[in-house]
Amino acid sequence: MSSIPMEAGLLLAGILFVIGMVSVMIRRNVIFMLISVEIMLNAAGLAFIVAGSHWAQPDGQIMFIFILTMAAAEVSVGLALILQLYHHLKTLDSDAANFMKG
Amino acid sequence: MILLWLIVLLLAGGLLAWIAQRWHPSAPRWIALFTVLSSLLLTMLLWVNDGASPTDTAWLIRLEQPWIPQWGVGFSLALDGLSLLLLLLTFFLGLLAVLISWREIQHKVGFFHFNLLWVLAGISGVFLAMDLFLFYFFWEVMLIPMYFLIGIWGHEKKRYAAYKFFLFTQASGLLMLLAILGLYFIHGNQTGTYTFNYFELLNTTLAPVAARWLMFGFLAAFLVKLPVVPFHSWLPDAHSQAPTAGSVILAGLLLKTGAYGLLRFVLPLFPTATVEFAPWAMLLGVIGILYGAILAYSQTDLKRLVAYTSVSHMGFVILGVFAFNEWALQGVVMQMIAHGLSTGALFILAGFLYERLHTRDMNKMGGFWTTAPKMGVMALVFVMASLGLPGLGNFIAEFLTLVGAWQANNWLTVFATIGLVLATAYSLRIMQKVFLERNLKQQVLPDLTFREMLIAAPMVVLMLWLGLYPQPVLDLAQPAIKQQLQAYTPAVPAVTSPAPQTAFYPPATDSTYFQKMKGETYEFK
Amino acid sequence: MNSNDFLHLMPLLILTFGAIINMLVISVWRNHKIIYVITALSMLAAFGSLLEQRTLGPHHIDPLFIIDGFAVFYMGIILLTALLISMLSYAYFEQREEQKEEYYLLLILSTLGACVLVLSKHFASLFLGLEILSVALYALIAYLRKRERSDEGGIKYLILAAFSSAFLLFGMALVYASAGTMEFAAIATAIASAGGLSLLMLTGFGMMIVGVGFKLGVVPFHMWTPDVYEGAPAPVTAFIATVSKGGMLGLLIRFFMEVDGFRYPALVLIFTIIAVASMFVGNLLALMQRNVKRILAYSSIAHMGYLLVAFLAGNEMGVQAITFYLVAYFITTVGAFGIVAMLSDKVRDAELLSDYKGLLWRRPWTATIFTAMLLSLAGIPLTGGFVGKFYILAAGVNTGLWLLVVTLIINSVIGLYYYIKIIAVMFQQPDAATEATARLRPAIYVASMGTLTILALLLVGIGIYPTALLNLIATVLDSYSTVAFR
Amino acid sequence: MAELLWLIPALPFAGALLLVLLGSRLPRALVTTIGVGSVGISAAVTLLLGIEYLSESPAFYHQVVWNWFNVAGFSPSVAFHLDALSMVFIFVITFVGFLIHVYSTEYMAHDPDYARFFACMNLFVGSMLVLVMADNLLLLYLGWEGVGLCSYLLIGFWYKEKANGYAARKAFIITRVGDTAMAIGLFMLFQTFGTLHIQTISTEAVQVWDTDARMAVIIAFLLLGGAVGKSGQLPLQTWLPDAMAGPTPVSALIHAATMVTAGVYLIARMHVIFELAPGAMMAVAVIGAITLLLAGCAALTQYDLKRVLAYSTISQIGYMFLALGVGAWSAGVFHFMIHAFFKALLFLCAGAIILALHHEQDMRRMGGLQKKLPIVFWTFLIGAASLAAVPLVSAGFYSKDQILWLQLAGENGNIWLYLAGLLGAFITSIYTFRMVFLTFYGESKTHVGHQPTMAIKLPLIILAVLSLVGGFIELPHNFGHVVLFSDFLSPILPTISVVPDFNRYEWMLQLLAAVVSLSGIFIAYLIYLKKPDLRASLHRSETAMAVHRFWHSGWGFDKLYDTLLVRPYVFLAKVNKDDVIDSFYTFLTRLAEAFHDLFSDSQTGLVRNYVMGIVVGAIMILTITIFL
To answer: Global pTM?
Structure first.
């Protein structure tokens, strides 16, 4: 395990994170945006695990579990909101939701 | 303690006036009238009691109360001749303000008088505060009600004017706040006692650079308030848009707070920096005199014209302040009072005209002397005062200022003196446009009513008094001025001392001289 | 975990119980009043439990929490603010036919989250607190389901918040990776031993700043603020503006003081830029804005900028200044949004300037209170806002942050313009159209009016006689603060 | 008696005050009583004082009424100082003033603003008295400005006419220019002496400065500026002809007899300073010489009766300056007194004529009044004779002759100045009798309405007498050598020392003067009465008419100042009506608004862009963290 240097792991996490970030930026469908955010969160989780394993501590994995649960909660609320939004706008295009600007 | 009561009285009166509107529509007027009158009487009482008794220090009354001990902020008020004079002016003009609003203000009477009294309270606070935090506090407090006065009861462009007034003063005020803080910390680091107390801060030793910057901070606030060209552009709008009472208070009092600040804070706090800056300040003053006069000449809106005349007159103030000698400063004090009266009077006149004609445009006026000779005579006196005719207060003020300024800087004084000619030009223009020529529009112009005479006559009397026997005022101001000048007595060389022979003149020792000349003197019986 | 720990965590526990009881009650009997009473009581109780904590010394509950004067004070103001907001909410929701009850549940939970934030001294607790706060907020913002603006706001906040907390998490991960611990103090020591910040650490801090900055709504992470403020129901807006930002600020201060971030020019530079940008952008955005809620949103951005000035002073005085300012700011914001809430009707919130036209003549007292609030925001004397701003300026001048101080001054002038613009609208002549908007039921009206009056009096009180509050802050913070000052 | 010094100015002031306060309500009779009475009483007081003064002959009377103010040793008092010089002036002011007041009661009889008129007149007399009795320059300045105000009010008395108003403004502003110079002079005097007390200054100046001291010269010139402004001398003379817009009594009192000679008084009063500044003295003389010539020529070409008199006043004051300039102090003052008599007389006669001809002032529409207004004719003739310095009989001859004589005989006399004076005398007699012939001879053109009554006749006769016999108190050496007047003034004003053994030529000069004056009259007679075709031929020649127009416009000074000063100033003012500086602040607000628009566009309301914002922020932060 320790053969893999921490930097590599972090790099992977970083790449994941950036992928998520970019897709949030380019996606317009709210659900996809949500998914991409999840990717970012998981990237963070991965980073924690890597760090934890590097320091041989459980903390990283604990944090990851926290993140999972939080993500779950977030997604649930998020989906509820998205449903409502769809109910109002009859679309999932995030750009449609811009009554408020300026 | 009485000082505190003065302010509290006004504040309470204001609140009462606001509430009182529910009971009776004209109740606020009477309450306001009573409040201001009583504070005026109170102040006069002060003059009679303490003003007369010359103490070794210039301070007549002092009040020290802890307020925010953590910061060394005290609720400290003090009264010296200067403050006393300005308080008298404040309440006198306040009284007139209430009276002129009697007919002019017809809606939201309660709230109007609330604001009026709170402005007065703020101003009196400014004139009394001897703690820089407190000073700034009052300095700001007086703005808001003034903002309301302009913004609610003003003329057609009132909101614009109100914004402009508020923003200018606020911006400059904040710069002063910075300077105050700077001073506070410098003093604190030097002495270890962190305090905003004026008397403590007076003996702060400042590095030249620091002194310069701090002085600019203070100047910012005062020069804008005074106002000095090029920071004057809030004034014409505010003055011309405000209701008459507002204009009177703006021109008569708010501008004076700037002058007061210069005298009370800038001079004693930064003796060296001011001396460096003096030529520039005087230059600004002269520019103000001339520029204001030129602008005044071209105005057709009567109130705007008068507003620019204030710019011009306030030029004398800064010219005198930075001459650093007693003549000039006495002149400045006289100017503060005389200008307060004369310009206030002109604004009141404009108010009378506006009430009758509902216009301020002088092109729509003319030939009113025929229909309203009383008003004409009053106007004549006011106009003559503003062009500095001897025998009226402004002359004493301007002459003393110029005499003092001459000792400091000849050429600038010469240009300032030219201002008198320009003053003649714009002042006479008022007479010409409004009262002379033919009344082409055939406007019916009822002459002054009793109430209006009641307002105008005292001003005329006061102007004459100031012009013919100003000594009481000068005596009252003198110790204060000497005290403000302490730091300068070495710094500025005295006037080339008159040849010793003059010792025999002042009048007391005349006789010897006249014997020598085989002359005969006669006591005035 | 011994009893002592429980004693110290009492506020959190009480809040949690309050939430649970709420759920139970709702499940058996929906009744707005009762739920409201329970909520209020639980918050009061939590606050009460704080009072006797004041006497106890700083207490560590390793590794997650620390209860010291700082934490207690911030919890205190958070709880009180939440209490006030719940009072306003009652009046606000009473006239709306939605299912009102869950609202309080969420309110309590997010308050809990905020409290956890200010207590936490460990990434885990930080993260938990933050998320409790946020997740509850998503729902709160979108609570008025009938309004599409409401859930538009919700969605925006959801995505952006999640997005930014991802940054925060990743940052924490990096910090953890380089420091090997998630405890603030330990991190500080780790840095000290490492003798300076490693690149990893710096990057971590940087990404954390993104997360924190988002919650504080400072430039360039501010863009959500106006939309969410506008979309959310007025009380919720008040909540976001005060509790969530306050909690985050508390955390930021603690963390920064612990790791002593002021030693690192990079971080100082970042915060300086953020502060200056926030002040300018916030005020300029508000300048011509005609929607009161948005104006308040933008002004909140600017105010965060002001707070950062004191924060950057980075000494005891700075923290005290922030704290004082925060108190004044809380009062003011709650008051302002309270007014907005009170003037709102079933269909929409009173957010357009035109809704306020001639208010001074229609509802003098309300208008006066609003004026007081606005003047406080503008920092005019007689109000707490002035003393707060003065304190911040003093802190800035004391540390010689001239750039920031001057920026602050310029901006408070710009700010003044739009505050007095609202005031000016209020004293215009009311045109017949906007005559008395639908009156509330007298009881409620009196209740909310009373609340607002109290707020106004408080505001003027600390404006005229700040000594008491200053003493309190000084004692509570100094007496046994573990926040390490330079 | 001398305790009543203060009464002399106080009475007219009191009268003015009364009339201002309740003038409009009083019946005319009462107004008359107050207006005329106040001046009358102060004249009486003056008389008594004068008698006492002559009997006691002290250096002066002095009375401190009250101490005006006292600032750091600068303590001018409201105090009166009466010596021979002031005595002469207050005599003229009160007596001539009184006569003119009497005259006015009829002249203004039908004016609606009767009370206002007398209020202003009284105010004027009071201020003028303060001016000449002041013991310090500040009080003098008060009087100085006070008379300026009254002149403004009275020139613009018929304010309904726009022109009158402007004439009044012109007068006030131009004199104020002079006053400004004077004020600066006062500053310098104060700086040097620490007081403005005239006697002190006079006694000390000689100790502080030696002759030609720079300070002294500057101050003298500045004072001269003031004098020039008030006395309508070059280059500030342009206001005086326009000042004729006022009622004729005003012209007589203010713009002939008293106020305009204040400059003469000032110079005579401050003669010590001037003697220390020979340059300034020379300047005075030269200004006087030039002015008297220019004004004389202008007078030749006027048609308006009063304008002729106005220009002649300018030119006569020129003579006084000429005298003062060469140090012939008493001669100057003497001419002032005589001039006051005959010029007031002429103006009053003019007034009578104007009144008779329904406010017709143009001489071309007059004529043949000799029979219709006999009294006026004779008195006018006397006045004219005195003005034209008809030898032996007229007072003007003696006063003017003395001046001319001293131009040569005086120790700093000068042939050119003499010639100028002589030429002036010639011109004077021409235009004077041009008036006489045009007005009283030839066929009548306008119907005579109002015949003068006692109130008009009496003053005319008295003044006529004075302008005949007034000269006999000061006669040249070769006949009689009466020196009452100069003796009277000698304690105050140094007597000019005459170049020894020059006296033997005096009679020649007198002869010359006589010839000049008479020949002038003769020419006038030829052109305007005997040979009209001469005049016609003049009118035909282009050059003559061009010159005529040029002189008629007063040598085009008005145009000059208009283009050089007035227009540019007004233009400047109008251009900058709404304040360039203000635009800077408006620019600031525009800037702020621009930024607002910029930023608010960034608030698109699209989540994507907000995400983008956050990312950008993150990248910025990371770059900073990494690269710092």
So the answer is: 0.90
